[in-house]
Amino acid sequence: MREQHPDDRLETVPKATSHTDPQRRVICQDCPGRLYSVGPGETLKNFELHLKNRQHRQRVADRVANAQTAGH
Q: Which residue windows does the record flag with biased composition (Basic and acidic residues) (predicted)?
């Protein structure tokens, strides 16, 4: 996913479950409050839809533009 969305800020965190069944979640750092369980089937598709979402894309574009402006 990072290859397809190199500017997106994503963080994986462990899900609070039993120690015998470790699961991961992905937090979208560009969209506060967005936490996704990732796995087979629909959950991964939902996360991919989020990455293509117009509001998400705009937040990423704004952050990248601000970083470039601050760097000059």
A: 1-12
Paired tokens of 62: 């704004």
Length of the chain: 72
Is the Cβ–Cβ distance between 1 and 50 less than 8 Å?
A: no
- pLDDT value, residue 1: 74
Which of 3, 7, 23, 6 is closest to 65 using CA atoms?
7
Of 72, 51, 71, 68, give the one whose Cα is nearest residue 6.
Answer: 51
Residues ≥6 apart with Cβ < 8 Å to 39 = 23
What global pTM score does this model have?
0.76
